[in-house]
Amino acid sequence: MTFLNFLISGISLGSIYAIIALGYTMVYGIAKMLNFAHGDVIMVGAYICFFAVSRFSLPPVVGVLLAMVVCTMLGIVVERLAYKPLRQAPSLSVLITAIGVSYFLQNAALLLWSSNPKVFPNFFSVTAADGAAKNGVELFGGQLKLSYVTLFTIAVCVVIMLALTWFTGATKMGKAMRAVSEDKGAAQLMGINVNGTISMTFAIGSGLAAVAGVLLCSAYPTLVPTTGSMPGIKAFTAAVFGGIGSIPGAFLGGLLLGVIEIFAKAYISTQLSDAVVFSVLIIVLLVKPAGLLGKYVPEKV
Fold first, then answer.
1. 21: closest CA among 210, 202, 250, 181?
2. What is d(CA 26, CA 21) in angstroms, rounded to the nearest whole number?
3. Neighbours of 213 (CB within 10 A)
4. Measured between alpha carbons, how far is 20 from 230 in angstroms, rounded to an integer?
């Protein structure tokens, strides 16, 4: 049962990576921008939810919704102020700007909320009949343990992936996003508001980042201004692993990355787990440069 426990923990961690990676892959797939500040939006969402619940005693659902609203607005503001003026700029300029926005958000959080670690509240405990707090379920005589946060994280990830797949394939805005992804010029000639579509993409990605931040801090309850940095990098790795620009690819890449990381920590070394994860990524990209579900698109000249 130890193997199965590790597998479930890996799927849970991978689900968080997948939710973050979905934000990365949507922005890149439509705007062709690498928003490296995305990981710090996760941190902002977690702080908003933390203070809403701990300081103002709001219900957890309200805290999550408030975090989503704030992060959605933050994503739109960042896109309008930092990325929109660089639509025709070289990729290197956009990349440097994204890194600058990332450091700005981290230092703003440091000034606003200090560097002292915050203990994130547990939203997923249930009071049993005897008055004791219960955080999960035990199967097979306690050999298999499933925490409520694990079950909820996996379920939320699947629902978000299915919802985004439906949204991009069946709605008017989703079809507009796909058209902008294919050819911005042609989409504009067809009457699509390219700027509004890209802003909507950033808004959706940032809203998902808030959800990921709450789930991440629920599973790993220490919150600091750099909380989103490493998960953001790993989620970007997951998006590339699965095929950046592909929603199912981001989902698959996130799950595989989480499973690989947990098994590397369990069976190889905690210190070397990140090296194992990135080594697997390199090997996969050597075999499939576009990622597991990505498609090679020849560049037109």
1. 250
2. 8
3. 34
4. 12
Beta bridge partners of 138: 145
Place of tokens 């808030």: 210
The span from the CA of 240 to the CA of 290, in Å, is 8
Q: In sequence order, what are the residues at sequence separation of 6 or more whose Cβ sits closer than 8 angstroms to the Cβ of residue 157?
A: 15, 16, 18, 19, 251, 254
- CA–CA separation, 31 and 186 (whole Å): 14
Cα separation of 241 and 263, whole Å? 17
Mean pLDDT for each 10-residue chunk of the chain (301 residues)?
86 93 87 85 94 91 95 93 86 88 94 91 70 69 79 92 91 90 86 90 92 92 91 89 87 92 90 88 86 67 50
CA separation, residue 295 to residues 132, 245, 250, 291 (Å): 52, 9, 13, 8
Q: Report d(CA 212, CA 79) in Å as an integer.
A: 20
Which is nearest to 7 in space by CA: 238, 258, 272? 258
Residue 19, H or E segment: helix 2-31
User: Between the CA of residue 221 and those of 119, 213, 273, what are the distances in Å?
Assistant: 6, 11, 20
Backbone angles phi, psi at 300, to 5 degrees: -85, 135
Give the pTM.
0.91
How far is Cα of residue 192 from the mean position of the Cα atoms in its chain?
27
Residue that has been written with the tokens 């219960």 in this structure: 134
